[in-house]
Design brief:
The protein is an alpha+beta fold and 460 residues long. Helices cover 18% and strands 35% of the residues.
Length: 460
Amino acid sequence: MFSVRRRGVARLAAATVVSGLVAAGAIAVAGPALAEDGGATATLGDLKTFAQVKIDGHEYSAGLFEMKVQPGGSIQTYCIDLHTDALKDQEYKEVGWDQSVLHNNKNAGKIRWILQNSYPQVNDLDALAKKVGAKNLTEKTAAAATQAAIWYFSDNADAVPVNKNAQALTTYLRDKAEDLEEPKASLSLAPSSVAGKSGERLGPVSVDTNAAKASVSLAPGAPAGVKLVDKDGKVVTDVANGDKVWFDVPAGTADGSAELTVKADTTVPIGRAFVSTKVKSQTLILAGTSTSTVQAKATATWAKKGAIPAVTVEKNCAKGGLDVTASNEGDEDFTFEVKGQKVTIAGGQSKTVLVPLAEDEAYDFTITGPNGFEKNFKGVLDCKPAATPAPSTTPSNEPSAATAGGSTGGSTTGSTTGGGDLAETGSSNATPMIAGIAALLVVLGGGAVFFLRKKKTAGQ
């Protein structure tokens, strides 16, 4: 909900592409890094339930976003990344705190407490108002008050609701917040990639879910005879939390691969983080949910001889990069290269290498294998809340050019064009002007740049 549009432009200009090349052997991977944990995938909609708050003397909109879960369901989220633009219609993925801006936030558990003890989880607003010493609360003022309290712990921001009753709720939530444990994933599989020789059971793939049961099936195109089985070799179509699944690949099956999909209808736990999967966009946290369809995938690759690798990729926010974990179930060395790192893994061994990335850096690399095998990894390393704007940056109360519909500050409420910014809080809303200035940098040189920047600061 808080936006620094100059910073967003800089991110886009600085985004780089990471190349991953296979030097020798065969390698199999399991989909985009952000998709490995499984769980809910949702599309960001509008800020629907909101009221005004003040930050450093300026008013901004604060409240609940609505998101559509694919393929079914809906959720509500608050912001935990105050100074970053929220881009409507972007795809988001449910992740653990360790893969989000909360990875090193000692107050993350308090944010979850706020979510559990305020609107919309607590929807008896008369009782809530009485509890916090307010005369009355509406859905809008309660949402703004809750968001203000969350920003205190997620971004160290002193956000104060304009409404006096909402102020009482914010104060109560900030003062009473307790440290709760991180919620578990709605659905995840581990590992997401396995390998071995034909004639063996490949796996196991372990299921972790809060659903009572989930369906499991092979993706279309699996070779004839390949089955999904339990530890006793019985074919499985349904799984529950803690179950393990193997790929049963008959002897003589041609070298190849198969994929399984686990699906469940469940409610995503309150407090799960949601991050954008393709571009830099505001990190969100789950506050309300309907029953939603969640899914996770895992792959298996097999061969008769040679290197038979399996590879998984996971964001490592603590170390600032991607963990690429490769194992080799074959009888020959497996060698691959990723971003300048050449790695060799002997048969029966495994290794994890860190691919360093800058904060907000885009990555896009492909790893290929035999028989036309190819997997592409795309995403953005988004592990830190955006920095507070410099003192010379004066927040604007006008919606950006990308926004249709009127709202001041925060996340705008009108409909926006696909991919348009929802959040305008804390920025100069002058992305087109900034782009023009960038062009003038090349033509006019440093002196003109200084003049224009000084002029623009005064204009804000």
